[in-house]
Design the sequence.
């Protein structure tokens, strides 16, 4: 998610393209941009990747001052073009374009109320729901209406919005999802991760605070609190898995946090007396943690699994049932690195165990004497209602097996998870995070517990 | 516009595709279909032609009983994907898909009211506006709500709609746009023109009456009057230009009506003493009228302008300013047919005169001694508010020049239009038509007179 | 097939595109162009249509003086990219690009000889074979080598060729296939049909003579005879079916020749006492002949079968076995024109009878009282070895049934063919044509008689 | 390059696809496959990548026993479809499909002779030249003709060939390019690198020997020596840069060879007294060498430059002059890893220095205190005539500057190359390699020295 307001007129499609491209990992289902073109808001969006969908508008080059972009991650609602964002509407508050990252947890009651009052829904997005509430607000002033709306919704919402000639960035009061705010050369920029600011060469940035709304427009920039600062519930899974290692999220370096998690794993194994010869990361998800593990354990680190850079979306396997072949096309073991070794294989997390089983098989085929899979996160046992796509409880392998059973199931000599205390010890402010996917302790009411939507 | 309800489960995307394809001439901007698939409504739509956009769903083959399809003609609102139809929404009345042909003339006041009440608009279509009104209606019963809604809107609307498991076809009380209703083998079908019924091999059909709503569902078919039968204002331009010659619209044969218009032109010219050697149609718009002219005048008819069937949408001229080359790629004169002749060149109507100028030039280059352009319609002078895209009054050549000036402008030896009386004489029930684009006499209030939207 | 030499530098891809586009009907399998770009010959070719394959090079705009273009008609060798033309080679004679229309009839012995001597074949085209012969010729001078080569090959060959900076147009000594030569504004142009010259607005042209080679280069234009003028064997099927009606081929107007054929059919029927009410052409193949028939017979002519212009190559029927549906998507009867009439349905020729059967069915469904199918050519009974794709003798309906049986087979009330004498009577120089597909009298030796290749 | 012969019928397009895909890094210009389909050889090839060009044939599934595949690397001849391989011809030796990796160095004289004798060239490939020689050979027996042909050509050629029902793999007598031969379950397989055999799960393989020809057909497999075993000149650049790290080429582990090169660099720096804090690889080209460096130097290794996996070929920069932006889209520094450090940045080689300059800038922007660029190969100063694309001597930065000047030019604090002795010390059999790009000492005559083709 990206938003730009510029004092001077710029080529918005191009200026949105590059940072949005660097956020592609946050969603590959659909993408879009909305911007003000000759006095009207327009939106371009489609199923597919940024380079394909938005690449063709790069040279559109209509001078403009304001635009937002979105990549959609499929955590609900299905892969439908109607759900692509930004959502662009015209209403009594003016023309509004909205992009949303996260997941609102009290949609059920809000939607029932809007249905009753005659609202019609084109999509199943939380963004459209929010726009209905905003348009129907009887508050005279736009920002009063917006604040009233934000107070009615619960759960995870980082938002970027265009309202007429104003750009607005918003982060929910618990701060589930990241949102960063930077300025440079008369530009005000919002981005989910700082890697998007890096590509724009913006060095002056900070996290938008939970409960903060930042408004940029022709009259300048101002910060508004729409909710009191209380407890934070930042998504720890952003640090473990979701964000890019070269980003900072929640004002933390993702790469260093992961290295600490790897080091914590190594301490765990040292106490347990595990002896390995070699630390290998699962590329690229285990890279940082494996480095941290090797450093702490004093063991050799090797890039013994290489990754093929030519696998992309352009090729669809003729038969669905070829997951193993798909993995083999992408990940290749280096036999001469692995053969005869007791390998510590490090990844970030374990969900269903399907891919891990294939990877362990590849490493064994390459001649490893032992394979010990280590995950730099605790066991995932609960669904997420705040924007991470986690399978049903039944599908989560840690709800069905203990580590010893998992090891047997995937063919590893052992499987080890970073414990909750270990994870907390890697975070400078451990109380500021949500760990609900590990411990089921949700920081706000959720629709139903025990099963994902 | 097409709608199908089938007693038995059929492959709806395929069954919609063929009749919709045969209506492609009614709109080339975008197209779409909506149907009930596994208990939910889904919609597929995009900018482009039926064969491209919907061809890929032909083999989807989910058994279904109900579906509608739409081709969009750009008469307003711009070429945006958001305006593609059917519009599919979820609201307190259930899931609804709606396709609209025509143009509602009191949108201004209705939209103001909806804005005031907090409705948000994703598109600029009349179809979305109608759905807002329907959803907000406080009538308990769906059909009461629908009837109340239809009574609030004015202007041209032929509609096909899916509501849950029910298919509904509706024609406005003045009957501006055609809509036909046919049945066969347990199927109930709606289509804008009968050519779409022909390709489905449905022989049992009639026009939906102005003010009639036909409802087909699991319980059978019923006809409801939502407005009293009063004066009709059927669009005479459908007969002159818009509909396909092999169709019947308003229960009239389009081909025969056009032949009568051509014959009326010939009588006009005979009285005026015009002498020609040869009647040529502008392909294919002047075909039927030219045949009628030649027959009445006793002059030879020839296909002296041939049409290249390989010109399609796949090729975009590198430079915009090549209209003449585009015409030359498509229309080719047969020199040996034309050389030395006094040619009566027959077309349906004259709007800006740009293409006619090129055609007259081609015919002269092919050696014609004289070229007399004859139009089987009166001079177009007024905008249409009911669904035909007519340029601004300033652009209409007949608001700027009389026939003699037009002839000089386009290089013809003379230009002649069918007069209003002549036109009326070709129609069995001349009072049942709207002639507003010729005489400015609009059958219902229009937003403003003298200029199109 | 098109060739251009220009005194001044022009944008050759664009200048080839438009005339080649107007020859699309001569071949839809593949197409290509070759031209001299920055001192080297380059070729662009692919399976597909001119607008798709060559449209993308329109704006390449490298100044050049010389280029050729080709559309390939699949009469042999299969739909393979390797067979797309022009063929571009480098050899001891220099860089050569060659495009060929027709079919060489003594390929067997020539190919055997070349094999023996070590030539390697990338394609199965006659053009490649000719280039092998040319390169291997021991004649010192290029034109001596070319003449020697042309004398070794038999059958049908119209050729356009680039050799270094020279453009050459060639027509075989019997003149099977058409080739026209025009000049204007310092340009020398070759084209298979004059419609391609028309779109270039070239009025000064003539047929290349059988046995003539025209050479255009920086030193000017010269005509060379490589064979004595003897008997001509021009393909009468070009006039009947293949060429566009707005073209002249063999210095004859195609449209007028077809009208005469239709008139001859009408005289035949008058003598036989056939009574009809209405003449309908099969669009567009029967257009000209039907006009000639109606004029001669004094019967009304109507465009009672309309053609859908949106059918193109973009849509592939999901199932192969849907020929009837494909015809129904393309051809639509006008019920009000046809119902109750005794219809004379005119087409150019009858091959397998498959499409005619469907058309007769459509006309009967539209209410025709009688349908009499008339073909403006004799019965096709023999294969063509000179470039027209005719099915095997067994597939030709006229080898299996007499007209009465055919009528029964296709559901018509009668079927009538133009006789050989009738056909000859329509041609000013009837002895200058090849009628082998009708009478099996081949004007030069053919590989084997009784079956096509 | 891949070749398969199977005792049983298999789906050749699919069986070629996967190993060829794993060799994509060896050539991205064009690709193709040829196989025996229903008794005839067919070829599919196009400009573009394996997944796009060949992915569509995966399900063709015609049972077949024999096929070859090729990816083309643009070292000469230009990016033309005509040069895509395999080359498929028909000649007096039968149907032959040929794929070639390498570069023949005596093409000039051979081509002159073939021109003289009348051969025509469709492409500029060495493969076509070889086929001309083969077809023209007067040797009666095919293998005698093939051997005679191979003895006439000099330079680098690894070949896979289909001749009728026989698969042949060949490696030139100096062994420039790799070629491996494996067998399993009745299949005989050739592949340029062993990573392609890994994905086929073939464990039983060896390098084809220099001067060896292996023939697999219905009668079994046999090895033929067409040249005496003499000096080897294997391309050392395959180990340094070209091959994949998980491959073995020339029976050496690429990954381990590169680690040794990195370690040798570290020893060099230790002797020179360089002090660094952190070793970073340029991803992924410097990965293995950086690991070897860090291990030897006892310095921390970090993945401080991350690589974006979404950059692909689908997006073309609107302006050419955006190399820096392209690098920024692909490579991202991790500020928290780099800031304040003295960075040893390791890459494989330095050609023009353009990308290195941008990378050094990125690392400095991320806060590095010092950046020392280390290359795990000597200075490249000479063109390659055996298949590696190296720019002209003038473009090679090491022909214009010494390391100190280069450091200044690219903004690094120092630049260091692995010396020739250092490189040799990393290879078990250093005499078996060609180092000509470093020292200009070519192992066989080359067309001209001092400038590339």
Sequence:
């Amino acid at each position: 998610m990206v938003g730009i307001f510029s004092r001077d007129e710029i080529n918005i499609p191009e200026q949105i393209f590059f940072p949005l491209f660097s956020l592609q990992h946050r969603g590959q289902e659909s993408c879009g941009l909305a911007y003000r073109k000759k006095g009207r808001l327009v939106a371009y969006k489609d199923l597919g990747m940024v380079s394909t969908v938005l690449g063709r508008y790069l040279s559109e080059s209509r001078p403009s001052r304001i635009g937002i972009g979105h990549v959609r991650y499929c955590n609900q609602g299905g892969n439908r073009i109607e759900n692509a964002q930004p959502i662009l509407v015209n209403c009594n508050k003016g023309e509004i374009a909205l992009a949303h990252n996260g997941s609102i947890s009290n949609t059920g009651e809000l939607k029932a109320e809007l249905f009753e009052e005659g609202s019609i829904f084109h999509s199943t997005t939380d963004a459209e729901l929010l726009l209905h509430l905003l348009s129907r607000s009887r508050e005279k002033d736009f920002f009063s209406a917006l604040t009233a709306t934000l107070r009615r919704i619960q759960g995870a919402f980082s938002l970027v919005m265009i309202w007429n000639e104003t750009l607005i960035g918003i982060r929910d009061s618990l701060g589930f999802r990241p949102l960063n705010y930077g300025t440079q050369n008369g530009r005000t920029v919002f981005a989910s991760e700082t890697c998007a600011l890096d590509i724009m060469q913006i060095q002056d940035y900070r996290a938008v605070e939970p409960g903060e709304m930042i408004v940029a427009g022709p009259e300048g920039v101002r910060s508004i609190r729409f909710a009191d600062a209380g407890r934070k519930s930042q998504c720890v899974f952003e640090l473990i898995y979701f964000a890019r290692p070269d980003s900072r999220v929640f004002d933390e370096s993702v790469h260093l946090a992961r290295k600490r998690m790897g080091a914590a794993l190594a301490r765990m194994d040292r106490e347990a007396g595990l002896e390995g010869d070699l630390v290998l990361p699962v590329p690229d998800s285990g890279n940082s943690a494996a480095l941290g593990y090797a450093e702490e354990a004093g063991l050799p680190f090797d890039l013994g699994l290489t990754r093929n850079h030519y696998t992309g979306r352009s090729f669809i396997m003729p038969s669905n049932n070829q997951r193993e072949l798909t993995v083999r096309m992408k990940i290749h073991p280096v036999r001469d690195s692995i053969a005869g070794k007791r390998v510590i294989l490090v990844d970030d997390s374990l969900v269903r165990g399907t891919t891990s089983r294939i990877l362990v098989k590849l490493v064994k085929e390459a001649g490893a004497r032992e394979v010990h899979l280590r995950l730099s996160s605790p066991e995932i046992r609960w669904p997420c209602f705040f924007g991470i796509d986690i399978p049903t409880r039944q599908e989560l392998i840690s709800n069905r097996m203990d580590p010893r059973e998992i090891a047997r199931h995937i063919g590893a000599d052992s499987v080890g998870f970073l414990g909750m205390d270990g994870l907390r010890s890697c975070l400078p402010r451990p109380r500021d995070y949500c760990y609900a996917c590990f411990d089921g302790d949700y920081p706000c009411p959720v629709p139903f517990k025990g099963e994902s939507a």
Q: What stands out?
A: The first strand of chain B starts at residue 2 and ends at 11. Residues 265 and 356 of chain B are 18 Å apart (CA to CA). Chain B has a mean pLDDT of 93.
